[in-house]
Design goal:
By secondary structure, the protein is α/β, with parallel strands linked by helices. It has 19 helices and 22 strands. The strands form four sheets. Strands 12, 16, 17, 18, 19, 20, 21 and 22 form an eight-stranded mixed β-sheet that branches. Strands 5-6-9-8-7-10 form a six-stranded antiparallel β-barrel. A two-stranded antiparallel sheet has the order 11-13.
Amino acid sequence: MAEPSTVARPYAEAAFKLADEAGALAKWSEMLAALAQVAENDRVRMAIKDPNLSDAKIAGLFISILSGKISGEAENFVRVLAQNGRLELLSEIRGQFEALKNEREGVLEADVQSAFELSDAQLKDLVQRLEKKTGRKVRPHVSVDKELIGGVKIVLGDKVIDGSARAQLGALETALKAKGAVMQLTPSEISELIKSRIQTLDAGAQMRTQGTVVSVTDGICRIHGLSDVMQGEMLEFPKNTFGLALNLERDSVGAVILGEYTHITEGDTVKTTGKILSVPIGPELLGRVVNSLGQPIDGKGPINAKMTDVIEKVAPGVIARQSVSQPVQTGLKAIDAMVPVGRGQRELIIGDRQTGKTAVAVDTIINQKGKDLFCVYVAVGQKASTIANVVRKLEEHGAMAYTIVVAASASESAAMQYIAPYSGCTMGEYFRDRGQDALIIYDDLTKQAWAYRQVSLLLRRPPGREAYPGDVFYLHSRLLERAARVNAAYVEKFTKGAVKGKTGSLTALPVIETQAGDVTAFVPTNVISITDGQIFLETDLFNAGIRPAINAGIS
């Protein structure tokens, strides 16, 4: 179903063209304002929706109410709207007409909300500042809102400058939550945080774009507005909830909500943040279990990571790579002898369910004890109990000391399952780019592809083979290409000379689940073509008691 703004645009443009040709923009502005006011009347609304009234009678009702106040062309305009059943859009049409008129005249409407009455001098100074900032003439509409506590909030079209005390307190609350629960901070730390927020009050009142929620379905949100949003940008929803902008369309933005979304309703305000989705990185994450956003879920308190990095990054170029010459000892003789894995390679673990794929991956992590290789285990779409068992097994063997677990269980939203591998990869790249070796296991990418398919279909992207979107190959290729061995020059440049003469590597062991041993299905063939080799686990060999159940012919 088309959005009201999309449906109203052609009518607003037609009215503007008529008014412009007649040189009567101001007159048409008054007439549309009067028509919109009539359309807001409860009795008129009921008449518009009454199936027993003809289009001509409804149009006649409008014309009779405004007899002598609108021109003949405006009366014809009302009749066309009635015939097309669009009279309820008069307010939207009037708004878009005013936007076109202001654009022609170089005027910007400013909705100024203040916590107190502004004097003439204050308002004049504010208008001058806005005109200097926007480069356009500003027409202010001032109102008082005591709930702002202090300061002003200015709305310019779909952009907002919020310098109110309420906004600063909200930012302080967010900062406290980011640092950890208030009870876990010392009074001196809280005092220092409040001091830093006070010192940056002016910086907080920056111009941000805002939009309006049009619809929310299964964690997918469609937003009207946000004219300058970036692909992959974090969006701020009410109650400190964030989303990720994925679909950028002419009139709307399709976003996935990261986390709980039941409190988000149609009409809510959404703001841009100017930030691309990032996660914490560094050695502070070792030994911890985190979600797709890098937030701890193991009950061991906050993670005091000193750095963050974006989850979507460009893979190292050809010049930055170095040939693979060092092995990753998995501890499984069949693999190390027949299909050895090198540091910086991508080796696929593929097989039907219950053939020991996760066991191979976990054994590989456990075998890295004392070998100066950091591990990242990314669990996608698995049962929470299964993830807990893996963590327990790693703890029993002392492997959590050098391992980060990123968990997006089956109970989490499709969006969280979709971004989990990218978050884990960014955490692993921290070690690679500083001349260290890391191993990352994606368990499994089939479920990530399912989650991405669900998100894409809800965003109304065209489906292709097996209902996957057209870029499902790129989904995995851009992820797995980030696994590489980088040369010493790359490490030295990245660390600005702090690390010299050392190469770094990120080895990837993606897991793919097949159906009835079919390695020719869509997703398996995609990932096979991206990886350097594959370890194929067969059900018949597994049932025969052979562990690991490797089919040497296909591997």
